[in-house]
Design brief:
Blueprint lengths: L15 E4 L2 E4 L3 E4 L2 E6 L2 E4 L12
Antiparallel strand pairs: 1-4, 2-3, 4-5
Length: about 60
C-alpha cells in the first residue's frame, strides 16, 4: 500500500507503513529519512522518535 492522495484502501489497526521524505540534488546526491509507523486502535503511532530536522537526524 502507498500512502498517497487518492488512495482508497481504508487504514486499519495493525497496518504498518514507512514514511520516507528526502532531499535530492539531481546528478549529485540525495538523502532520505525513513520512519516506521503502525496504525493502532486510536490512530497512527511512530516506532521511533521523529528527528528535529534533516540537519539533525539523530
Amino acid at each position: 500500500m502507498t500512502l498517497v492522495h487518492g488512495e482508497t484502501i481504508p487504514l486499519a489497526s495493525g497496518m504498518c507503513f514507512s514514511e520516507e521524505p528526502g532531499r535530492f540534488l539531481p546528478g549529485k546526491f540525495g538523502v532520505r529519512l525513513k520512519d516506521g509507523l503502525h496504525m493502532s486502535g486510536t490512530g497512527p503511532r511512530r516506532f521511533s522518535e521523529t528527528p528535529r530536522s534533516i540537519d539533525a537526524p539523530v
